[in-house]
Amino acid sequence: MVDESAAKRYKRKTLIAFIVFFAMIGIAWAGWKWLVNQPLDNGIRGGIQTPLRKVLDLNEEVYSGLYSTKNLVKEYPKSAAVKKARVNGDVGLDETLFDTAAWKLQVVRTDADTLFLTMNDIKQLPKIDVVYNFKCIEGWSQITWWSGTRFSELIKKYSLHKEVQMKFVGMNTPDEEYYVGIDMPSIMHPQTLLCYELNGKPLPMNQGYPLRLIIPVKYGVKHLKRIGTISFSNTKPPDYWAERGYDYYTGL
Ligand SMILES: Nc1nc2c(c(=O)[nH]1)N[C@H]1C(S)=C(S)[C@@H](COP(=O)(O)O)O[C@H]1N2
Ligand SMILES: [Mo]
């Protein structure tokens, strides 16, 4: 008698456990189904579902809000810099298509008149060195020594007052294959350089000759090599790696 009811209870419990178990699987499956069926955000390649993108955007807002331009990235003595800096990423750097002699930096002003600057124009601006720990998102870092002029000197020298009121700066390689978007506080940061020297010598071709961006407050992806065009906008300019699923700001 006693055994029988115990067995019955046991059977019922097992049944309930099974029902709950399968219900959970059902819920998880339905949730997953829902997520994967959500529209993708506008990424070119690895686009992600909009609910996931919303979480990423929220993270970005939190971090860019915490980030302060008053903070300087740690600097090192020149002697601490690597003699042979690692080369990474060659999008937009096809040498066979690049006319070194014809290169000019194009600065597109908001009223649509474009400045064309030579390397000589840029070298007239105050020159500084920045020695810092360059970090790539792929998981390597190294201390490197760069020289050039602060981005903010360009703004000052060419009276880009209207432009600096904008929220973002966009940069492209001359062939427009690689491009980045940078928030104004980061591009105006005192350690952000229009850079033309590495270890005291002109930039090598594969590291962005004649002019590249050095932006210590960001990961490597934002350090566009071989600047062709600079533009200003209130909306996020297209960004090569953001379109491939990376965080837009990639701040440190
Ligand atoms: N034009 C261009 N700039 C670029 C890239 C690229 O592929 N093309 N890669 C970026 C990435 S991911 C990194 S880590 C740095 C590497 O700079 P380095 O080659 O001087 O080490 O350049 C950035 N700038
Ligand atoms: Mo990188």
How many domain regions?
2
Bound molecules: ligand MTE, molybdenum atom
**What would you call the shape?**
elongated
What is the CATH C-level name of the largest domain? Alpha Beta
The H-and-E topology, N to C, reads as HHEEHEEHHEEHEEEE
Characterization of the model:
- The N and C termini lie far apart (71 Å).
- Strand 5 and strand 6 (179-183) form a beta hairpin.
- By secondary structure, this protein is α+β, with helices and mostly antiparallel strands.
- The protein has helices at residues 2-36, 50-66, 119-123, 151-157, 161-164, 184-187; strands spanning 105-108, 114-117, 128-135, 141-150, 168-172, 179-183, 193-198, 201-202, 212-214, 229-233.
- The chain has 2 domains: 1-37; 72-243, Sulfite Oxidase, Chain A, domain 2, CATH 3.90.420.
- The protein is elongated.
- 29% of the residues lie in helices and 21% in strands.
- The strands form 2 sheets. It has a 5-stranded mixed sheet. Strands 3, 4, 7, 8 and 9 form a 5-stranded antiparallel sheet that branches.
- The longest helix is centred in the N-terminal third of the chain and has 35 residues, at 2-36.
